[in-house]
Amino acid sequence: MKTIYPQHPIITTVDGRHQTVVPAVVRQQFSIRAGDQIAWATCRGVIEFILLPQGRWQDFRGAGRDLDLLADRIAHRQQERDRDCLS
Question: 61: which DSSP letter?
């Protein structure tokens, strides 16, 4: 998936504790709630964040006990980023 950059980006500030706010429009669009986890990645000087799935996996408790689904997802995203960076 190609990243699409908005014409007028939303700007936030990093505070003294190195924290920032996820803008309301982004929280609403992606249903981000307190406690959700975000993975940070970089490619060619661009920082992107990936919202990690949360509650959905709880429905399948025990089904993938021996699988590391998060590591698989992160590896898959790295392959996508590498492919995107090469094009």
Answer: T
